Structure formats: C-alpha cells, structure tokens
Amino acid sequence: MSAPEQWHELAQQLRVDSIRSTTAAGSGHPSSSMSAADLMAVLLQDYLHYDFSQPKAPTNDHLIFSKGHAAPLLYAIYKAAGAISDQEMLTLRKFGSRIEGHPVPILPYVDVATGSLGQGLPISVGVALAGKYLDKLPYHVWVVLGDSEMAEGSNWEAMELGGFYKLNNIIAILDMNRLGQRGQTMLGWDGDQYAARARSFGWHAIEIDGHNLDQINSAYAEALAQTAQPTLIIARTEKGHGFSEIANKDGWHGKALPADMAERALKELGGERHISVAVHKPAAGVPATSSECTALTLPTYAKGSTTATRSAYGDALKALGAALPDVVGLDGEVSNSTYAEYFAKAYPERFFEQYIAEQQLVASAVGMQVRGYKPFASTFAAFFARAYDFIRMAAISRANIKLSGSHAGVSIGEDGPSQMALEDLTMMRAVFGSTVLYPSDANQAAQLVALMADQPGIVYMRTTREKTPVLYDPSEKFSIGGSRVVRQSDADQVTVVGAGITLHEALKAYDQLKAEGVSIRVIDLYSVKPVDAATLRAAAHATGGRMVVVEDHWAEGGLGDAVLEAFTGAEGQAPAAAFPRVVKLAVTSMPGSGQPAELMDAAGISAPHIVAAVKAFLG
Amino acid sequence: MSAPEQWHELAQQLRVDSIRSTTAAGSGHPSSSMSAADLMAVLLQDYLHYDFSQPKAPTNDHLIFSKGHAAPLLYAIYKAAGAISDQEMLTLRKFGSRIEGHPVPILPYVDVATGSLGQGLPISVGVALAGKYLDKLPYHVWVVLGDSEMAEGSNWEAMELGGFYKLNNIIAILDMNRLGQRGQTMLGWDGDQYAARARSFGWHAIEIDGHNLDQINSAYAEALAQTAQPTLIIARTEKGHGFSEIANKDGWHGKALPADMAERALKELGGERHISVAVHKPAAGVPATSSECTALTLPTYAKGSTTATRSAYGDALKALGAALPDVVGLDGEVSNSTYAEYFAKAYPERFFEQYIAEQQLVASAVGMQVRGYKPFASTFAAFFARAYDFIRMAAISRANIKLSGSHAGVSIGEDGPSQMALEDLTMMRAVFGSTVLYPSDANQAAQLVALMADQPGIVYMRTTREKTPVLYDPSEKFSIGGSRVVRQSDADQVTVVGAGITLHEALKAYDQLKAEGVSIRVIDLYSVKPVDAATLRAAAHATGGRMVVVEDHWAEGGLGDAVLEAFTGAEGQAPAAAFPRVVKLAVTSMPGSGQPAELMDAAGISAPHIVAAVKAFLG
Q1: Is B542 exposed, middle or buried (0-12, 13-18, 19+ CB in 10 A)?
Q2: Predicted pLDDT of residue B574
Q3: CA torsion B465→B470→B473→B475, rounded to 10°?
Q4: Chain mean position to CA B49
Q5: DSSP line for B194-233
Q6: What is the DSSP string of A362-428?
Q7: Cβ contact (<8 Å) for B423 and A392?
Q8: A584 and B568: CB-CB below 8 Å?
Q9: How close, in Å, is residue A232 to chain B by CA atoms?
Q10: Cys-Cys crosslink for A240: which of A246, A292, B362, B554, Cβ 3.0 to 4.6 Å?
Q11: How far apart are the C-alpha atoms of A48 and A80, rounded to whole Å?
Q12: pLDDT for A182 beyond 80
C-alpha cells in the first residue's frame, strides 16, 4: 500500500475500534475520537518515536491526550501499536480494568491523567522544559487538544510560557471539530482566529484539513522543522467523521452507539481491521543531567535566634540543589517572598520562572516529574487555590511533586485577607495520598524540606512569613508523620496542639499558665498529614481528655480536624476508646489589615485566647 | 488651568498621596500606584461617571482595580473625589481601618475585593454582561490591570468572553510598567504583543504612552466610541514614575518609602495638594429588568419514583426563573449535564453560556451580583476546583453567589476519577460564611434551590448524577441548617449519618439490620454547613455515643468532619459534654471506572459496609 492508503486504513481501524470499545462499554466518547483518527494515524505510522517495550525510556516521545475523553482513540492507538490486546481494549470502562473512561497512568504509556480539560498542554510545557533544558534530548511532546478546552485560561498560560521558553519540542494538534458537549464551541470552525491567537502568543501555527492525510503529513514535517517556536496545528475536523449518521451532527457528544448503529458504522467504515504498526523507536540517548548525588548539608540555625520558616525553606532548597542534581525549582514570580530565589540564583539552569500563572506552575511540576525530576514549586499559599484542580488531577496522575506555600494565615499582617491562606491545609489534606507539613521552626523546616525530596505523591509545606524563634537544636530529628511534645509534665491538665506560628502562641500560653499554677502539655503537630495519632491519643489520655487545638486557618478541615482524625475510626479501624473533648481555636471572622499580633489576637488564636480556653476547660 | 494642567496637578496629588499613605503605614505599594496616576487623573477628572453619594446607583460606572496592590492610588482617588477624608486615607493598613492593604467592599465604592491577581477583568465581564444585556444601561466598567497579571489564564478567559459577548462597555487599562515583583515581566514593554493578543481575542486595542495626558484623553474617547468590542488600552508606563530615585528601577515593588525618601519624593512631585474633583454624575436611568416577583411554584416529585437531584436542580431553577426576574443562569458548557439547560431554554435572555472556563464562570457570577442579580452558576462539582481562588476571593468580596456542582463522588460511575468531585464539600466548607447543601431527594433539592436564592454569601449545592428514590412528600419542609431523622426508634443502638447518595445506602443498611434485629437511627444531613448540631448531639446521646458517617467523598473535611463540628467547642463555646465515638466511612483509595454500585462498594460506602461498621461497633 501507498502511505496514504496505509494511513487511511489505520485511521478507519482507529475509528472502528473507538466505536467497538464504547459500544461494548455502553458509554464513552466515540464521536470525539473519530474526529482525530486521521491525525493520529499519520502520527502513529510515521512520526511518533516511542518504544512501547520501554515506556520509561528517556528518549521516547510523549503523547498526551489533553482531550482525555477521546480515550477510546488512545486505546485504539495502543492496540494498533501492540501495547495492549484487542481484548483488553474492549474492557473499556469496566470495573477493575486499566482501560478507564479517561486516561490514567496505571497504563504505563500514559504520562498523566487527563479528563479535566485544559491540563494536557500546560503539563506538556513542563515535559518540554525538561526535554529542552534539562535532558537536552530530541524527543517531542505531541499534545492532542479539543477545541472546547481552548476556552480554559490554563491553556493560554501554557501558550504564553511555551512561546516564552521557545519550546519547539511541543507539537500541539487542535482537533477543531466545532462541536462541544452541548452545541457549537465559542469559535466553531474559525481556524484563523485560533491561528492568530497562537501566533500572538509566540507559536508557529498551521491550519489544515484534519481529514486530509497529505496535509497532516506536511504539517507534522513543518512542525518538526521548527527550531525556536512550539507549533499549534489547527486541524479542521468533523466530530463523528466517517459515519454519516452522526458526522458533524450535534447531540452525539459522549454517547456510545447502540448495537445496530455500531453495526452500520462499522460497515460504512469498512469493517474491523487488525493492522499492527511497527512504531518507530527513538534513537538511543541519555539525559544531560548528572545523576550523581553528593552528601546533603542542610542549613542550621542557632536555638533562640529568629528565622522565618519561608527563609529556611529557601536555604534548604538551595542545599538540596547542591546535593541532588534532579531537584528543580519553579516559582510563580514571587521567589523573593517564597525564597525560592536562593535556589534560583545558585542553580539558574534548573530554575524555571513561571510568572503569575499558578496553574502552569503546578502543571510544569507535573510535567517535570514525568521525566523523573523532583520539582519544588512555590508561591504564596493562598494562590495554590488557583491551581487546586491541577493538584487534584496530579494525584490521579500519581505524580510526585513538592509544593511550598508561604504567607499563610492572618499572621502575614498588613496585606489583608486576599493574601492570607486560610484554607490551604484543608485543600491539601483533601488530596489523595498527600503529605501536609507545617514546620514551627527553621531547623525543623530544613529537615522536612529534605524529607520532601523523597516523599511520593503531592507533598505540601506551609511556611510562615514572620520570623519566629528557633526552638529546636539542629541535631533534633523530625519525620513525616511525627510530632513533638514540647512541654510535658505529670501534672498536665490540658493538651494544647499548635503548629507553625500558633505553636509559639501555645508556648507563651504555657509560660503564663505555669506562672498561675496550671500545667499544660504542648504538642507541635508539624506533620498535619499523616498525623501522629499515637502521640495525640496518649496526650488526650494523660490530660483528662481535654484538648485545645489552635490554628491560623479557618476552622474547617485544617489542623483541628487533623487532630480529630486521630480519634475517629474508619472501615476496619475502631475509633479511640474514649473521645477527648476538643476546643478548636481557629479563624472564624473575616480578617482585615493590621499588625500580625493584632490580627492573631482579633482572630482569637493568640496566647491570651489559649490561656482563656484552657481556663474555661478547667472551669 | 487648562485641562492638561489640571490632569497633571491631580496626577501628582495621586502620587503624593500614594506615597504619604504607604509611608505612614510603613508598607504597601507606592511604585505600582505611581505608574498609573496619570491614567487615573484623566479618568477621574473627565471620564468617570459616578455618584459617590449613591454608590449603589444603577447608572454608576464601575472602577475595578484588578491590580489590587495599587490600592493606595485607589484611596487617593477616593480622597480627591471627596468620598473619604485625607485623615482616613492615612489609616491605610491600620488595624480596624476600612483602608485595607488591598481593596475590599467594606468601602462602599469598592465593588469587589482584589489582590489575587487576574480577577478584576473576569469579574468586570460579569458586570458588563449585566450592564449590556440585563440592565441595558450605558454605564462603563473601567478596569485597571497590571502587566504581571496578564500572565494569569483567567484574564484570557475574560478576554475571550468579553470579545465573544461584544462587551464594548468594558474599558480595560493596562498599566504596562514593565516590572513585576521580582524583575521584568514576561513581555516587558512589548506593547505590540499585548495588542496583538487582545485583537486576536476580539478586542479593540490602543497603544499609548501612559504618562502622556493627551494620549490618555484620546484613548478614552476612542474606547468610549466602540460599539461592538471591548477595549484594552495598553499604556506604557514607568513604575515609580515621578520620583527619579525609584522610577523604572527594579527592587521597589511593594516597598514604602522611608521618611527621608518620601520627603524628597514629595519635593520632586511638587508637594502636597488637596485638589477636590467634582466627579461627573451619571445620567438618571433604571435597569431594564423587571423587579416584579410572582409566586413561586416549585416542581414536585411523587414519593417512591426516582429522579436525579441534578434534574430537580434544573427544574427548580427554571421555576425560580419564572418567579424571580433577578435570577440569572450561568454554566460552563455542560448545561445538558447540570440541567441548567431547562432555565437556559426558558429564559435565554437571562442565561449566559460561559464555555469551559470555570474561573470566568464564577467571576461572572460575582460580577452579576455586583449589580444585584442572583446568579446561579453550575458545572461538574469537580471543576469548581478550577475556580477555588475565585470562590475564596468572592467570600472576601462579601459576594452573594449560588453554585451548583453535579456529578459528585464515585457514584458517577464509568467516567472515572477525573470527573468525580471528592473534595468539593471540603473546599466549599472552608469558605468564609459559606452554605453547603447536599440534598438526598428531588423534593428536598427543589426546596433548597428556592432557599438558595435568598441565602447570603457563597451558597453551594452538590447534586447527584444518578437517579435516586424520592423519599419525601412534596409537602415536607426543609431548611438551611436543618437535618431530617428518617429512621428512629427507642431501641436505636447506632446513629448512621448520610447525605445525598449515601443516605440511600444508609436506608438499605437500616432494612438489612432491622431484619437482623438491630435498630439504627438514620439522619439525612442535607445541610452540611451550617450543621444541625442539636439533632446530631441528641442522636449521639440516644444511641450510646455510637455514630457512623458515610460519605461519597474523601475522608478529610467533608460530611464526617461536619458531624464532628457538632461536638467540638470553639472560643466561648464549650464542646459537647460527651464526645461520641465516630466511624467515618469515606472514599480512601483512588477509584477507577465501573458501575456506580461497584464503585461505591469498592470505596467502602455501600450498604454492606455500613452494616459491617454498625456490627463492628456493637462488637
């Protein structure tokens, strides 16, 4: 067969298989798969370089379906490549199958989970940054975009940074099939407008008929020839192309064909095929980044001096940079506040400014870890709320990323509530498999930063803007899942739990209460998730079941609820034999501007309020 | 004085006042204020139409500082307009002052809180939609943008929708001062590139020297003449313009001038002035929208039939639309899933498609409520995570918006985890002053939708994809903050709390346990926030302090923690005398695809798991 004939046959197979799997499942998105089948056939046959026997090979291209609902097409590609069997493909959407409704990386060929639109392109920017500037390998990132998702602002963050960093190793393919879930998209088939937008963001844009195999072929060749610009191929397509009963017709989004229609569709498409494609393997190559680690020397701080934990974060990240060549820094244009700038200045070749684009900040981290790097991404803690959907999806991607949020709580002071993270602990705790750390002093912060490097999953550290006293000797050891009992005696009547800035208030309260003859136990709960249930249970038991938890955070889902978790049960796990009586001191009114101490006092989380809460407990 | 002389004098006053207030505060952003002073002087003197004695007048223009850190400039404008005194202006950033570090609407002239960048323009789109299509009044929305924040994807969502809806009543002023917080912005002074981007998104773009008063004047006149396009004025400015020691110099972001520098600056700027501007008042006018409400007739569902609560949401919203002319519908291109389409079809003139741009979806709602409308915004519950920072800021704006998230939890089935909201209850509970509802049947859902309309603050309803049995008679009454004991006897040994889909599992568990001679109390906790503490405490007391909470949600911060909230104390509020022993059944492993029943069972939240948890409790 000629190349065009081969492409056509393969494209028809991809369509047929997208229909077969979705009809077998009784749900799914065949029409959104069929529109991009020609584009994928040419890619698979002639352009993709991927060793399916070694999905983690550093030289492999990356194929990311940003329009994750076209998963049936992706699985049809894997079948054609011999990576999965026809039989497994037909387990689409079945309980227990790897062939899920949207792609997830339990399939080794899938880099990241998609299905929340507008994430594939931003993540591709992270992979491409790694490819061009760290690995320095010639692989390409092929991204398949839907046209509806071009409305997501996150895609324009990716466009601007892709252009800014001249990521010519990205080839994005816009499957402009005109129809969204419930009608026409904002731009319909106005390819010129997409092209103008892409060009204004620094991209090379190519407009083609997405069902013309020769045009597709030429576009890929033209994209590969780019040396300083990423490419967006705007492919005009028809949703459901190839089956006249649904092609370019509204009302067929996310609907599997019933058996009789599927039969007619297969007939029109020329029936089942089982073409196997010998996908090009990439040339051999190794990443340019050194893999030689050296001994880690963490910064230390003199007990009794004062240092902000955000500053310790910066120092420790720089130290990590010296020891671990795979550590990468990312920041959202506030590195002089988060102190990521210490790393940036020491290791500029491994630091990537993400500007004020927090979705892209997290997406770049996800992309970096696809290539095995250890990304540390920082911004103000409040602004991670901007990227919550990316963090949620990163967990589904089983990604290993490290996030650091500075300027948490009312204790930031004069800037006011827009800059105060008061929901970050909540938000980060409710991420599957996450780790949430909130250090209370600089030596502890430095140690925890080091532990973050090897901790899998989404690892979040909340740091404090204000300088706080160094409580611990540099020799003291801390662990993820640990806590520290900082004040303790046999006479303790109430347990007070704090973390970060509030631990210091708890210590002031301890001194005052001690002077009045009241003894409290004070716990530094620096590991908010996982939480040290044993220590909390023991403390509650020792102090008559009386606990006060104090946090610079809203009352819902933060430190207080982390403490309660130590006492509740779950399936197969009994709750504590006795539940303590718990008073939560948290922020419950809207703060304004003011000095940190004024605001903490107004929020009811300062030492006097802890003292009052303890006394109220004791009647 | 000639107009240019007047403008100049006023601009210098705005600069001087920005320095005076920040130097008095010892912190703040004078340099970011000074760059835009000329732009604001011309606006205030000749273009803004605003009656400061009637800030809520429907015909007023709107002035939104998207670059909220330029708040000192905004306050200087208010002083010049006579809205606040010089003395109050100088309370900037002081505890208890209305003159906060970033603008908040406790000042009546501030429409919405800003300070999280990239929000002012999206919110302006909402205000402008209201102005052009609902109020049909000739007011304009003037938006002051920073150049750093143009990196936020949210601004491009606003650009695309502003263009799509032909919002010629928006005049956005880009203060292109080149310098961000920590160095040059991505585009520096490349005004052509901003202009190209704006044009490609359907905007009219004008490039000017932002310190040339005549050019500013001409640009405003040109912008006002637009009939079918919003305008972006790209004003090349210098950060710190007017004071040679800091003008266009890096390192002066967010820094107040020390007293000696401030003195030199005032000297260079010509000293203190106290010019008072008689700001143009708008012409009289009334909104085109009817204010006549009619009786509300909610949909009803026959007890024992099955209906998805998302469908009841759609029916009830349509009914609200008939009764209340100020109800507006917004959706993120999934209205055929959220069933906002029922409203959209009935009231197309009050429905605004926001496409797949969830940040804009929420921002438009915030903008609509600035003009007094009652916006109901819907998308998949999972995708509100995309807009979490907008929801956080909406609370700081004291905004009244209603959000509805469909497709929550593993019970959505085959689509897989990317489409499953498992953190929405957590996220929404941790919003200041929020209300969180999770109806368990269609009649209840309809009633709660009606209650949402008048509930202040951020009001969220989680709906269920699957059809569930109608449990309640249409005559039964429900309230925000309420709950319903659906199974109860004197012999109850354990309390089981569910909501939404899990209530139905709890009822199945009840039947099975009853057949085995075990009696449980079952509570429908449809109001997740505020929570009905009295009923929960009474139930715990009645059932030996044994409680099982079951939720289709992660374990952190959701229904389980809402239940615990009923037992903990806070400042001045004692915890329950006896704390129950609580077992939380929640989603604790990553779900995949499958049938709803399979996934609920795998997650450990189905009836058999509830039965097992109850039995484990009873030993």
Answers
A1: middle
A2: 87
A3: 10
A4: 26
A5: HHHHHHHTT-EEEEEETT-HHHHHHHHHHHHT-SSS-EEE
A6: HHHHHHHHHTT-EEEEEEEGGGGGGGHHHHHHHHHTT--EEEEEESBSGGG-TT-GGG-BSSHHHHH
A7: yes
A8: yes
A9: 15
A10: A246
A11: 13
A12: yes
One-letter amino acid at A561 equals D
The catalytic residue among B152, B358, B423, B505 is B358
Ranges of H-type helices in A188-256: 191-200, 213-224
Q: Which of B152, B419, B564 sits opposite A115 (nearest CB)?
A: B419
Tokens of B226: 């637009």
The whole-angstrom distance between A151's CA and the closest CA on chain B is: 5
Shortest distance, CA A280 to any CA of chain B (angstroms):
31
Give the count of Cβ contacts less than 8 A between chain A and B: 376
CB-CB contact of A33 with A175 (8 Å): no
Share of chain A above pLDDT 90, in %: 97
Among B337, B582, B599, the residue with its CB nearest the CB of A568 is: B582
| Helix, strand, coil percentages, rounded to 5, for chain B | 40, 15, 40
* Residue A394: closest CA among A358, A373, A366: A366
- A238-265 pLDDT, tens per residue? 999 999 999 999 999 999 999 999 999 9
Interchain CB distance below 8 Å, B568 and A564: yes
pLDDT at B1: 76
Tell me which residue in B116, B429, B593 faces A556 most closely, judged by beta carbons. B429
Contacts of B212 (CB under 8 A, 6+ apart): B38
List of chain B residues with pLDDT < 70: none
Integer Cα distance of A423 and A404 in angstroms: 14
pLDDT score for A152:
98
A313 vs A339: CA distance, rounded Å: 7
| Residue that has been written with the tokens 């909470």 in this structure | B549
How many Å apart are CA A126 and CA A135, to the nearest integer? 12
Best B336, B392, B546 member to test A by mutation, with max A CBs in 10 Å, is: B392
- Pairing, β B458-462 against β B546-554: unpaired
Active centre residues of A (catalytic) = 358
Contact A153 B149 (CB under 8 A): no
Distance CA B478, CA B451 (A): 9
Long-range contacts of B204-209 (CB under 8 A, 24+ apart): B204/B229, B204/B230, B204/B231, B204/B232, B205/B231, B205/B232, B205/B233, B205/B234, B206/B231, B206/B232, B206/B233, B206/B234, B207/B234, B207/B236, B208/B233, B208/B234, B208/B235, B208/B236, B209/B235, B209/B236
